[in-house]
Specification:
Chain A is an alpha/beta fold. In chain A, 36% of the residues lie in helices and 27% in strands. Chain B has 378 residues and is mainly alpha-helical. Classes of the chains: A alpha/beta (311), B mainly alpha (378). At the A-B interface, helix 2 and helix 3 of A face helix 1 and helix 9 of B.
Chain lengths: 311, 378
């Protein structure tokens, strides 16, 4: 294994009875790197994070976090990591400050440093002046940032965030990602899972995971290039169903799928095929259709890569 | 084990306890309530048994006999009955449990032969009460006969010794009045402590699982033993308060004589409290739902304590197999200790064996409770 890597995962398998949640996953995360795990619900993201936190034992394969083997030294790993579980898990009947002091005590934050760290975490959460508020009275975004503050109280070198932004408003999500970037800049390695495809753009590298398998790994740009073999057109037209059939039969079209309110069409050349498709749709009675070139989104890539993956 | 972490856990638990005044009130009121319910509900004394009398003679002697029954605190004021039909009806509808029938020739036989029979009809549906009632009736009759005999002897000018050459004069120690309450109430303290103690901790781990806070907690470096000690400490304090309530009620409300030392009481109560808190904790660790944990803890503490601790049903009367099982019931030792401390004033030396058993029990449970908690989700 590489001594430099913050996280090394080698052929990790996890089975729950007959169900295979993780099926031979391998990757590395470097120091200060923000690695995003993308995939639908049930893809195995939480299982992977729980194994790396020492909460679940792998069926096969090995993993090292902060240089320690999670199977043989889970306590050493726990001391060096911060973890935010998918479900909010601070004590709602305790105040903001009481929660932070509790986790400070559990992690053995030096007494002389505790007050400063608690104040810092309160600042991160944007809860200055509300340290005596019961956590149950806080809104979602504040809770999430408080949980993050609690998870980094002991200055972990590796941070695991399991869908930290689910159920939080877009503004809070953006602020949350700013905090994650600050941590990355300080050298903290962050492994964050999400099912929001747009959040992938915030990560240094992303791993696409589906049905327990890693189906792509790389920078957001690489993944999008790798996934879309050709150029992408967004086609807007009335009568979706017919339009889709017509487009699919057009020359130079490699792939076409309904995507929200438009059709996404992969072609060999956007400049040549765009006008052709518009004309073809018009000639078949679908008036006012437009085709323009767009950059592939993470969602395009995901759909294409999932389609290609065996099984 | 790091004290810092134990403290953090204990402080958190205390905060959670005081934030929930309703549960706190319940924790302190339930033992109070149970002491009253069990203290008054469980009594092996049978007093004021409803008595009916059919006096077929209505002479001075027969009235004197009936008056003896009425004067006894074991029987209610005798209610006169008319005919045979009424006897059956009264026994049927429960107006009386025992019917005394004085025959029409009662005083004639007494005068002629010096011996007369009366009939006692006892409702045998509750065989225990029936036995006791019959015995009480016999006792009243023999007191009455002794009085008669004394009169006769004195009239004849004979000495008393000729009547009963050998006489057993028994004297009861420790519970002089043979008040069953005096030996049952200390047992009830043990029963209430067992139930409440296990309930206090039965929710503590299950609650964290249900609320999702456990996932965060197991991802931290906290060790199982630190969690156990940190969580038990506040409940230990609360349990001691409960114990103080129960014991004070036993002495000052129920009037059970207390002859031991407070230290012996405190020491042994602490040991037993540790045992029952660990039972609740073990249940909470194994069953991750609050409702189920609470019920299992109740079942595990209440049933064995009521049936097998000897608090009301004497252990030496049980079949050998059941008697063997009682050694596994922690309350057995505490009941024994409490009765001895209260009524005999026994100290630590006299109680060394049950204390040792309780200590071993506590040690085993602490180890089991710490080991039962696993820091994994699967």
């Amino acid at each position: 294994m590489a001594a430099e890597a913050a996280i090394t995962v080698d052929g990790l398998v996890k089975r729950f009875g007959d169900f295979t949640a993780l099926d031979g996953v391998s990757f590395e995360v470097g120091r200060g790197e923000i690695m995003g795990f993308l995939g639908p619900n049930g893809a195995g993201k939480s299982t992977l994070i729980r194994i790396l936190c020492g909460l679940l034992r792998p069926t096969a394969g090995r993993a090292w976090v902060a240089g320690l083997d999670v199977a043989t030294d889970p306590e050493g790993v726990r001391q060096r990591i911060g973890y935010m579980s998918q479900k909010f898990s601070l004590y709602s009947d305790l105040t903001v400050a009481e929660n932070l002091r509790f986790f400070g005590g559990i992690y053995g934050v030096p007494r002389e440093a505790l007050d400063g760290r608690v104040a810092e975490a309160i600042g991160i959460a944007g809860l200055a002046g509300r340290d005596k508020a019961l956590v149950s009275t806080l809104a979602g975004g504040w809770k999430q940032r408080l949980a993050l503050g609690a998870a980094i109280l002991h200055r972990p070198s590796v941070l695991f965030l399991d869908e930290p932004t689910s159920g939080v408003d877009p503004e809070s999500r953006r602020r949350f990602w700013d905090l994650i970037h600050d941590l990355g800049a300080e050298g903290v390695s962050v492994l964050v899972s999400t099912h929001y495809m747009d959040e992938a753009e915030y990560c240094n590298r992303i791993a696409l995971i589906n049905r327990g398998r890693l189906i792509a790994l790389g920078t957001p740009h690489d993944i999008k290039q790798q996934a879309v073999d050709g150029e992408l057109l967004a086609v807007e037209a009335g009568n979706f169903g017919r339009a889709l059939a017509i487009v699919r039969a057009a020359p130079g079209v490699r792939e076409a799928a309904v995507f929200g309110r438009s059709l996404h069409v992969v072609v060999d050349s956007a400049a040549a095929r765009g006008p052709e498709i518009e004309a073809r749709l018009a000639s078949q009675g679908i008036a006012g259709a437009s085709a323009r070139r767009i950059d592939p989104t993470m969602e395009d890539s995901f759909v294409r890569l999932v389609g290609e993956a065996p099984g | 084990m790091r004290l810092r972490r134990v403290r953090a856990v204990a402080v958190k638990e205390v905060l959670q306890i005081v934030r929930d005044p309703r549960s706190l009130m319940i924790a302190l009121l339930i033992p109070l309530m149970q002491m009253f319910v069990f203290g008054y509900g469980v009594s092996l004394d049978v007093k004021h048994i409803p008595l009916c009398v059919q006096d077929r003679e209505a002479s001075q002697a027969s009235r004197e006999l009936v008056r003896h029954f009425g004067a006894s605190r074991y029987f209610s004021a005798p209610r006169p009955l008319a005919g045979q039909g009424e006897i059956v009806r009264r026994l049927d509808d429960g107006t009386c449990r025992i019917v005394l029938v004085v025959p029409a020739d009662f005083s004639r036989r007494l005068n002629d032969t010096g011996a007369a029979a009366v009939q006692a009809l006892v409702d045998g549906t509750d065989s225990n009460t029936a036995n006791i009632a019959a015995n009480y009736a016999r006792a009243v009759l023999s007191a009455y006969s002794a009085g008669l005999r004394l009169d006769t002897v004195q009239r004849r000018g004979e000495s008393l010794q000729t009547l009963s050459p050998v006489d057993v004069e028994s004297r009861v120690w420790f519970n002089e009045d043979l008040e069953s309450r005096n030996f049952i109430v200390p047992g009830i303290v043990a029963l209430v402590m067992a139930i409440v103690g296990a309930q206090l901790t039965a929710l503590t781990i299950a609650r964290e699982w249900e609320r999702g806070t456990m996932e965060q907690l197991v991802s931290t470096p906290v060790e199982p033993m630190e969690l156990l000690v940190g969580k038990l400490l506040p409940y230990f304090g609360l349990g001691l308060m409960d114990a103080a309530i129960c014991l004070a009620l036993a002495v000052f409300w129920f009037g059970v004589p207390f002859r031991g030392t407070l230290f012996t009481l405190f020491f042994t109560t602490s040991l037993f409290l540790l045992v029952v808190l660990c039972i609740g904790y073990l249940v909470s660790v194994s069953i991750r739902s609050q409702v189920a944990a609470s019920q299992v803890a109740l079942l595990l503490t209440m049933m064995p304590t009521v049936l097998l601790s000897g608090f009301a049903f004497p252990i030496d009367q049980m079949p050998a197999l059941v008697r063997g099982v009682t050694f596994l019931v922690s309350a057995r030792y505490y009941v024994h200790i409490l009765k001895a401390v209260f009524l005999k004033g026994s100290g630590l030396t006299a109680l060394a064996l049950p204390i040792l058993c309780l200590a071993v029990y506590a040690l085993v449970l602490v180890v089991l409770a710490a080991r039962a908690f696993r820091k994994t989700l699967d």
